[in-house]
Amino acid sequence: MAILQQYTNCSEGSEVDPVSFFEFVINPQSFGQTIENIFYVSFLVKDGHVKVELDGDGLPVIFPCEPYKEGQSRQAVGKKQFMFSLTMEKWREIIEVMGLEEPLIPTRDE
After folding, report:
1. What is the band of 9 on the pLDDT scale with cuts at 50, 70, 90?
2. Interacting residues of 38 by C-beta distance below 8 A, sequence separation 6+
3. How far, in Å, are 35, 76, 93 from residue 48 at the CA level?
4. Quick one: pLDDT band at residue 7, thresholds 50, 70, 90?
């Protein structure tokens, strides 16, 4: 979550700038860590810490948000699910098309 906040404009009272989902989760140095990053983001979404929406180009972007709080009406928290598959071939294509060289989430020791 802290990493996402570094890449979004989260100042009090301001609009939050989204982060490209692919730029955030893709590790151009490790397909395995890319999959792990997607897995971790899915839990941030599930717990209400972030939301994923589509931008004007139809690409997913991530916004930080306030997590669900005890006693909050469940109707107030909108949740949607989506699935996608990511093959190693598609991973390489995304890296090339988006010109990704360094991961936003640092590479972990394997």
Report:
1. very low
2. 25, 86
3. 20, 12, 30
4. very low
